[in-house]
């Protein structure tokens, strides 16, 4: 499914600088190079879609979509990568591979921030999700500190999560749609363990979770040994496909994370969940629009920031 998006959907501050085909004259094969890297990785590991959605969200929700999440910590200075919520983000080596190929073709031209956004778009499409045009022209940020990482947590209520999303310019409907990215996600047991046996100090499982799922997850989480924290798919049905089945799971009390299940319980969001569960085409259209908007959160353009040569290091710190 291919959806076109007019630039009037972009935040006003980004309109003048971001555009579809930004690299057409300076690096014509930029998006094709990124796509080739993502396709090759996807063939070997379909879970990279979840990895990129995770990375993209963490990047854009901290300092805007500026690739600050890619900076490595050093002995003298910690980066966003050292913050607790970021420790489960993965896929950095795929960004490195794409950047290396782009630097060979068009040195100092394509930003790491654009690589994240384009790679995420391509991985979504490969996983059965929508194919959509994404404006490019982002620049890379010059700051990456762990103290800036303040993200909505897995046990948030809908009002708490909405406050975080509203701060980035998203509506309730857009938040519910973006959380639909959990259709290909996984979560470590520590993120939902409290729902399985002692929910809110009751000594019992969360009553909003299907009892069969509780039993299944207890087995999964009990399998961890040697300090390993097992994971569970957030969509127990079509775990590697970007579709609307996540919402159907939520309506059947099979949401894994508390925030996911809350979407189906809160009066403000349950109708949105039901609508998306009933119409995959509507979910696909809405998800594409929301992802385009996500990619334009607090972007740097023009002469702001820089174009990193190495996505893991600020240019002024390169040896």
Tell me what the structure shows.
By secondary structure, the protein is mainly α. It folds into two domains: 29-150, Peroxidase, domain 1; 158-293, Peroxidase, domain 2, CATH 1.10.420.10. The chain has twelve helices and four strands. α7 crosses α12 and α9 (245-251) packs across α11 (270-278). 46% of the residues are buried. Residues 1-16 have low confidence and may be disordered.
CATH topology of the largest domain: Peroxidase, domain 2
Largest sheet: 2 strands, parallel
Radius of gyration: 19 Å
Distance between the termini: 45 Å
Which shape, going by the Cα principal axes?
Answer: globular
CATH-defined superfamily of the largest domain: Peroxidase, domain 2
Protein name: Peroxidase
EC number: 1.11.1.7
Organism: Punica granatum (Pomegranate)
GO molecular function, one term: heme binding
């Amino acid at each position: 499914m291919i959806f076109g998006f007019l630039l009037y959907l972009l935040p006003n501050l980004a309109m003048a600088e971001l555009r579809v085909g930004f690299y057409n004259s300076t690096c014509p094969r930029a998006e094709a190079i990124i796509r080739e890297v993502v396709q090759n990785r996807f063939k070997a590991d379909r879970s990279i879609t979840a990895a990129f959605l995770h990375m993209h969200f963490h990047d854009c929700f901290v300092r805007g979509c500026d690739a600050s999440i890619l900076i490595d910590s050093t002995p003298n200075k910690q980066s966003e990568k050292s913050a607790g919520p970021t420790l489960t983000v993965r896929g950095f080596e795929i960004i490195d591979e794409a950047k290396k190929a782009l630097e060979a073709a068009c040195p100092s031209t394509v930003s790491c921030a654009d690589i994240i956004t384009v790679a995420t778009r391509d991985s979504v499409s490969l996983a059965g999700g929508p194919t959509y045009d994404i404006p490019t022209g982002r620049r890379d940020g010059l700051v990456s500190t762990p103290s800036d990482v303040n993200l909505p947590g897995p046990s948030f209520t809908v009002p708490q999560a909405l406050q975080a999303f509203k701060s980035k310019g998203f509506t309730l409907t857009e938040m519910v749609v973006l959380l639909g990215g959990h259709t290909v996600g996984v979560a470590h047991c520590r993120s939902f363990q409290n729902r399985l046996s002692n929910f809110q100090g009751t000594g019992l499982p969360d009553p909003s979770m299907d009892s069969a799922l509780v039993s299944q997850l207890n087995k999964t989480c009990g399998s961890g040994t040697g300090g390993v924290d097992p994971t569970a798919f957030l969509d127990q049905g079509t775990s590697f496909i970007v579709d609307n089945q996540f919402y159907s799971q939520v309506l059947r009390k099979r949401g894994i994370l508390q925030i996911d299940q809350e979407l189906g319980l809160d009066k403000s969001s349950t109708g949105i969940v039901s609508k998306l569960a009933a119409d995959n085409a509507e979910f696909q259209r809405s998800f594409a629009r929301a992802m385009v908007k996500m990619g334009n959160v607090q972007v740097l353009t023009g002469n702001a920031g820089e174009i990193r040569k190495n996505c893991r290091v600020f240019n002024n710190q390169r040896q």
